[in-house]
Amino acid sequence: MDPNRFDSISRLLAERRLTRRQALRQGGAGLAAGSIAATGVSRLARAQDATPAADIPTATVDESTIEKTDFLFVQSFKNGTLVAKTGDSPGGHTLTLEQGLGQTLFFSDRPERIVGAKPTAEFLQDLGFSAGNPPNAALVMEATPGDSDFAVFELFNPRYDVETSTATYDVHLLEEWEQKVDMSFTEQQAETQYLHPEFGAAHLFIDGCADESVSCIKMSEPGRIAAQWPTVPFCYDAAEGCYPCVSPGTPITFKGLHDYWTSQCNFVFAEDCDGDCYSAWTGGTCDDC
Fold first, then answer.
1. Which SS3 state, helix, strand or coil, does residue 145 take?
2. Which has more pLDDT, 122 or 89?
3. C-alpha angle 148/166/97, rounded to 5°?
4. Radius of gyration of the chain (CA)
């Protein structure tokens, strides 16, 4: 792939990552707490039962104290299709990508230059595809032999067939993408009638972990969220998946992450927690916390 095109894709998804962060922040504490109530994790796997109060104390993360590395993920396939659909499920099309490598590549921004791969089925479980804050993706496809084209989507509801290495997504076309990149990608407008229903070799670039909330749950009152950070930058690790970023030196294990944010709960929200809080966020479990 042309290095300039690759660079433009990285910049484009970085811009849209910021947009996702702003949208979640504007959603407020109630939205963030609701996500914890739906699929939370905690010291005793009790955050899923927690319910937010109307006046939860909140705080903003001092991002200078944590280590944040942004990642981009790439999936490659031999061919694919894009089919319009009907019904109420998210997105207006179904994107099917066939005969893939079975692995999702990941790499970090400079200067870390972290590179690796993970089985695609496991990666899809890690990333998170919430309807309220879906990942963005850029699809570079071989429209006809020797001619590539480009489109940008939001991704929903991933499915993966390990036997055939086929990935399927519900997708929503982002029509403003053409204003963000070099128009040499394509001379066509990003409108439904111009999308290719069938195409050859394809590379799907997916942006990194979405910001999420971290809640502080009362150990003595497991049904109550005492306080929370409505948004916390989330990082990626091949073993742990998406996790709330932590300060340098923190062990990247669920217990290490849990202990770090539990200590933050009881320090930042000392009056509300009174030393009795544990941390919870969406994704993962910890039997030893």
1. coil
2. 122
3. 20
4. 20
HSE of 10, CA atoms in CB hemisphere, 13 A: 15
Nearest Cα residue to 1 out of 124, 116, 105: 105
Region label for 258, one of left (φ > 0), alpha (ψ between -120 and 50) or beta (otherwise): alpha
- Opening angle at CA 73, ends 146 and 118, nearest 5: 110
Query: Closest Cα to residue 12, out of 140, 116, 120?
Result: 140
Tokens of 209: 């972990």
* Residues 194-251: tens digit of each pLDDT: 578 899 999 999 998 888 899 999 999 877 899 999 999 999 999 888 999 999 999 9
Query: Under a CB-based contact definition with an 8 Å cutoff, are residues 78 and 253 in contact?
Result: no
pTM comes to 0.77
Residue 35: which of 216, 209, 244, 281 has the closest Cα?
281
